[in-house]
Amino acid sequence: MDRPHVNTKTVEGQLKKFFLEVDKENIGVITQAEFILLLKNVGVKLNPLEQKALVKRVDPEETGMVEYARYKDVIG
Prior knowledge:
By secondary structure, the chain is mostly helical. It has a domain at 26-75: Recoverin, domain 1, CATH 1.10.238.10. It is built from 4 helices and 2 strands; from the N terminus they run αβααβα. The chain has helices spanning 8-22, 32-41, 48-58, 68-75; strands at 29-31, 65-67. Strands 1-2 form a two-stranded antiparallel ribbon. The two termini are 22 Å apart.
């Protein structure tokens, strides 16, 4: 089955837009709680186990913070 064409520039732009809406100080970092809120605001529904696994992927060092580069790699 063929995959639909995805414009990666558009996807990256949307990811950055969503992140920057949360990152009010424009420092490239948001909290885990803000990350979860971001997901909910864009309509991503996760059960608690899925949420925990995704948070672990975007914050593997368990700092409580999500850097934009890691967010983009995991979500994009």
